[in-house]
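Sample intake sheet
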Amino acid sequence: MKRLKILILVFCLALSIPLAYFVLRTYRSLEQEETAELRYFAVTLFDQMEEELAALVLKEELRPVDQYSFHSVPKDQVSGSAVSSVSPLSKLPKEPFVLGYFQNNPDGSFQTPLVESDKIVPPEKTAVVSRLKDVNEIFNLKRTTAPEGVEIKTAEMEAETEREEVPSFAEKYLNIFRAKRQRSYLGRAERGRVEQITPEQALSLAQKDQRKISTGTRSGRRAPTEEDAAAGVDLGAASDPGKEENFLAGQEFKADSTAPSRPLSSLDPQEFQVEVDPMQSVLIDDRQILVFRRIVINNQIYRQGFVIKVKEFLHYLIGEYFAGQPMSRFTNLRLSVIDQARETAMVQSGAPVGKPNFSLDRSFPRPFSFLRATLRCEQIPKSVGRSTLNIMIGVLAFIILLGLFTIYQSARAVVALSVRRARFASSVTHELKTPLTNIRMYVEMLEQGIARDHEREQEYFRILGSESSRLSRLINNVLEFSKLEKKQRHVNLQQGNLDEVIQEVEEVMQEKLRQEGFDLKVEREDIGSCYYDREAMIQVLINLIENSMKFGKSAPRREITLGVRSDGPRVKLNISDSGPGIPRHALKKVFDDFYRVDDELTRATGGTGIGLALVKKLVTAMGGSVSAANNDGPGCTITITLPK
């Protein structure tokens, strides 16, 4: 058994090591899948934000340049002529995060489509126009200190913006090129587009120069005015008859002149060429950001854009894309504005996060390079496959343990049976040797004439008869047991009331009971009839009575009771004694093959261990059952149940 235990232990280790590795790898794969799934939806969330920002930038970059004045002059699609109309930007913005639109002229002056030229500012627009003027003044100061055309951002943000896209979880299954194509519009580094505008659109673009243009001629010949002199404009070129007039004068910010002046003689007399740069942004203060584009007309730079209210902008993005999503229950989204590695504004929403197990950052491309988004999660949602895996691991572990336990118990039972068989062989040899020795001894005594009187001879003959009967019963038990093991013993059931069986048992056991000093009491009720095998029933009762006599010799009261009573559709026979009883742990085992209770009493009395086993096999063959129970007082009771 010790070797068997070692083999089972080695088998468990050999099985558990690869199984544990498999389970560990499976759990790691599930963790990676859960992280990849969360990362995919986090990237999708950021992509949706970026798509809206790209759409906003695309809309603003394609906006006609003349819409930044109160009156725009679009071309009529049918006639091709310019038709004046009110600009769509003349109303307060619908977006909650946009303060308003304005234009910064080459001389730094302010112009907004919210107010018609030379008109009083409407009361509902007064506060907005005042804030826009303040933004224009701050912007004039900032563009003198920071070179225009360069985004104000950190090297870390630049690297994040220009990062190479890593294939995401979704790209294994979906082609997301179209979504990337729209988002890639942000952060493009190419130069702006060039388009043609009419003189009317140019007039609308520069409201402050309308009077100067109206006093000149399209051929470029006009007289200088007091405003030109105040602005320091050199009109020498305009007085040259060989060149067209540079009608949008004002060279106050010469550092902004990045393109050489193109002679207007090369242009269509009905159109002017304008260069529109991509949108860019500049942080005005902690509450406002200006997103603008540069408009270059014949080397004159205008800046058109809109002002974003920082807090409202961040709240809008969170409310639109995150707050109502299921992932907001277990993740936290943080949107912040970064200027020179300094966080100037921050808004966050979602579940509180202490020590995050997952974090994803996104710095958006220009002109929103000031915006950084961080999604964090402390407890990543578990995959549905994890619960299935847990159940399957539990079932597999249970089956393996149950199998090992069954193997161990089976091997243990086989080993125990082998031990009992060995003991049985030894016991049978001893039990056969004892009566044979006695028979031989008494026969020799009779032959030598030791028994000189008739009474002693009769006593020797009784002993010889008793030992012969004992030997015969032992041999019969072994033979019956062998036949039952080989299923060669067939019972011959008959119907009766057991009276003749009990009577024969009393006659057979009378002398033995008298010699041992036991009293046999028979308590019978009217049981009707039941089915039994006569010879098998006699052998069963004799075995039980002999067993009670063998273990009850040391009892102060030597009494055996045989009771027969009816119990519904069955008949019960109770053989009760006043002996030492059966240990509690052995009550069910005493009927096993070759089983003997290992104590001092059994070692002193001897036995083969097949008596009670033979009783159970015979009773079972007759369709009955047998059980053992200790009495309330001394002794135990064996109960046999037979069908009526």
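Comment: DSSP finds 15 helices and 20 strands in the chain. Residues 149-167, 210-269 have pLDDT under 50 and may be disordered.
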